[in-house]
Specification:
Blueprint lengths: L2 H21 L7 H8 L4 H25 L5 H24 L2 H28 L4 H4 L59 H18 L4 H11 L4 H23 L7 H22 L4 H23 L4
């Protein structure tokens, strides 16, 4: 690795890590165009080398989520193991494609990722805040109403609660239910369907092996819809899935001899440092600003890649 490549890898790795830390994912998709257009790697070598950056980023994030108890190890290991076959096939398939075809397909993937992030951000802003959610605690328990809002039913200290009669005048008083029930009960746990789980896990692994990306934008929805995990747990568990799929795809390509390991180690180390800085940056900037800026950057890069590769097809 030359000094020029090392000097290029340092800022690129920091930017990738900043996006990973600030957005919680998606930054690794920039590794492939950075390796191709800034560091002179071949498209096949870049999609393979990006797996190193993905794996290192997944390990760092997984440790943080594991300490917070947001990782379902059995479910994640099972889902990741089912996806290793797809990772192997995706890696083999990617190696047989023409380089221009591979980069054109990657530019299409970048546009899908940018559109998906904007759609998810817009859907979150349009979701109304219901009164039931405002009056329930974190675990769905009903919070007590402050005395200032109890109105005529307020009870003085030491006094007895007045009897409230409901229904017809001659009907007996209805006993109040205790403990009070929350207005919105949590949805029942979703039963995992084996065939659907296998197909989804294999598709996620195929995406990781083919493009050399983590695929968190696909893994997280898959874990919530297929396995019924809550969103924070799905985010933490997805890192375990990404790590297993990346390791399987990387093992498939490791023997090709096309990986510049010193360059990739430098890029991955800088990405790890940048992710820590990104975690601090996320608390100071608006999430919508970060999301829109990242989507705009990915869109511009995707259009530039398509303009470069499509005429040569």
């Amino acid at each position: 690795m030359t000094v020029l490549l090392a000097a290029t890898a340092l800022p690129c790795g920091l930017v990738i890590g900043l996006l990973l830390g600030a957005l919680g994912g998606g930054g690794s998709i920039l590794a492939v165009p950075a390796l191709v257009y800034l560091m002179g790697q071949s498209p096949h070598g870049a999609t393979a080398g990006a797996l190193v950056v993905v794996a290192v980023g997944a390990v760092g994030g997984l440790l943080c989520h594991a300490r917070a108890g947001r990782v379902r190890w059995v479910a994640g290991a099972t889902f990741g193991a089912l996806g290793t076959a797809g990772s192997y096939l995706g890696s083999r398939w990617s190696a047989t494609l023409n380089a221009d075809v591979l980069m054109a397909a990657f530019s299409g993937l970048m546009l899908v990722v940018a559109a998906g992030m904007l759609w998810r951000d817009g859907a979150g802003l349009r979701r109304p805040r219901r009164g039931a959610e405002a009056r329930t605690g974190a675990m769905g328990s009903v919070e007590p109403v402050p005395p200032a809002h109890q109105g005529e039913h307020a009870v003085p200290d030491g006094g007895a609660a007045p009897e409230i009669v409901t229904g017809a005048p001659n009907s007996p008083p209805r006993a109040p239910s205790w403990p009070p029930r929350a207005r919105s009960d949590p949805p029942p746990a979703r039963r995992a369907r084996p065939l659907r789980t296998v197909v989804t896990a294999s598709s996620v692994g195929l995406l990781t092996g083919f493009f050399g990306v983590g695929g968190g934008f696909v893994v997280v929805p898959a874990l919530t819809l297929v396995l019924g995990l809550e969103m924070p747990v799905a985010v933490g568990t997805s890192l375990l899935v990404i790590l297993l799929n990346s390791a399987a795809a990387l093992a498939t390509r490791a023997g090709t001899g096309s990986l510049d390991w010193p360059l990739l180690a430098t890029l991955a180390a800088c990405a790890a440092v940048g992710s820590q800085l990104g975690n601090r940056l996320a608390g100071r900037l608006r999430p919508r600003t970060l999301t829109v800026s990242f989507a705009a950057l990915v869109t511009v890069l995707a259009l530039a890649m398509a303009a470069t590769t499509l005429p040569d097809l």
